[in-house]
Task: structure prediction
Amino acid sequence: MIEGLKGGLGELLKKAMNAKQEIEKLQETAKKEIANGESGAGMVRVTTNGAGEMLSIVIAPALVQGGDAEMLQDLIVSAVNLSLSNSREQMKRAPHST
Result:
């Protein structure tokens, strides 16, 4: 009986390690998936990855010179959210190796 438990525990640990490795592999793949979002007719452009990290933001100089901070803030939030949404959609469509 105890031998059977040891074997079952070993198999469980092996499966857990395999699952951990697969998760790490998927996280690395997610970091390589790039998505973009823009708002204000392209005046704010954001690039994110599948890990939910914002990689870059480009703001048109004219938008900054306008001095409307509230509008700029809204456009940044909108572009970031769109880029993250696009990234999630890409990850759903991406083939996953198992």
Observations:
- The chain has a mean pLDDT of 86.
- Strands lie at 34-39, 44-49, 54-59.
